Amino acid sequence: MxxxxxxxxxxxxxxxxxxxxxxxxxxWIFAGITIRHRxxxxxxxxxx
Length: 48
Prior knowledge:
Keywords: Membrane, Transmembrane, Transmembrane helix. The chain is mainly alpha-helical. Helices cover about 75% and strands about 0% of the residues.
């Protein structure tokens, strides 16, 4: 049986892991979009 301190530490670690995963995911998406726009700019006269 887990005591309260262990349970709260586990929840805190789990929350920090999820939070860092979301933050790093947004960062990599943003970095990928920025790099794509700078390195491979979209053609300006593409037919829409």
